[in-house]
């Protein structure tokens, strides 16, 4: 589905009745959607007639029709209206808004255990086969809400804008679940940051009075190149916190984000976390007010997170000025509980490489002050069923399995 209030409502409706939702990015192909439907044995698909992105339309219903053609598990396709375009409807399809008008607007919540599944979200694995990362009810919601509150210094009445697509974990945790749990006004961003011009984000900030803004380094670097005039023509005085996520933010972009967008007065929080962690794991905030964030450094572990750096043999690296494979020592509320339908793969990927630790797949450096900097993926060497082999070997292994 496109980024829309109806998408958020659909997620929350699933949570209310105890159904596991799996949001798929609207830009994926029919084949990618089909693989996720089949892996999850999904019985209902919710989509829209079309999506609008950067002035172009994406034929979502056609993509879904192609995907579900070979999926016997799908019993119903619900189709919402985004553009009003005419789309073919089959006996399996229902027009969503019409179906909603024919049922009661009251629905008692289903009582669930704290460890019952809430949602799954697919992330590509090192082998190329998507992994259905499974998150549960209470722990995930607690972690999403508390990180949104403390990392971004959210206060009642603030307008909070995370511009991530809801199809990714950032959209789940920091567009929908975290902000709404805290009672925040949360902004849904549709389209791309350069349409109709590179001032799109900052026009939104002025128009809505956004106090916290959470974006991606790739977009920030693109906007930096477009020139400062797209920033300066909009009032950004409402901004207090500028966040970024997705990859390390390089020094040039960090300085531009802080000095140009934030006018030198806004805190920049460069965050590190993963689909599997459920929420932010390392960030400059919360911290004392006189603490200055470092460009390129997420810096500090969040409450309850205990980072560990180990070498390839699993030996812990102590002290300052060391680099190694980034692991986490103790459990935390937002951690994923499994890969849907393949718990063995879950253990092989995250817990068997370094017994007793969660292995993130990232490398990191701890500096002289004990602050952490992410150095990039270390998946060129991965532990699979106790054997350390290279990514190329894994790809060959998977290809051979498919042939036989």
TrEMBL record:
<dbReference type="GO" id="GO:0003987">
    <property type="term" value="F:acetate-CoA ligase activity"/>
</dbReference>
<dbReference type="InterPro" id="IPR000873">
    <property type="entry name" value="AMP-dep_synth/lig_dom"/>
</dbReference>
<dbReference type="GO" id="GO:0006085">
    <property type="term" value="P:acetyl-CoA biosynthetic process"/>
</dbReference>
<feature type="domain" description="AMP-dependent synthetase/ligase">
    <location>
        <begin position="1"/>
        <end position="337"/>
    </location>
</feature>
<keyword id="KW-0436">Ligase</keyword>
<dbReference type="Pfam" id="PF00501">
    <property type="entry name" value="AMP-binding"/>
</dbReference>
<comment type="similarity">
    <text>Belongs to the ATP-dependent AMP-binding enzyme family.</text>
</comment>
<dbReference type="GO" id="GO:0005739">
    <property type="term" value="C:mitochondrion"/>
</dbReference>
<keyword id="KW-0067">ATP-binding</keyword>
<dbReference type="InterPro" id="IPR020845">
    <property type="entry name" value="AMP-binding_CS"/>
</dbReference>
<dbReference type="GO" id="GO:0005524">
    <property type="term" value="F:ATP binding"/>
</dbReference>
<protein>
    <recommendedName>
        <fullName>acetate--CoA ligase</fullName>
        <ecNumber>6.2.1.1</ecNumber>
    </recommendedName>
</protein>
<keyword id="KW-0547">Nucleotide-binding</keyword>
<dbReference type="InterPro" id="IPR042099">
    <property type="entry name" value="ANL_N_sf"/>
</dbReference>
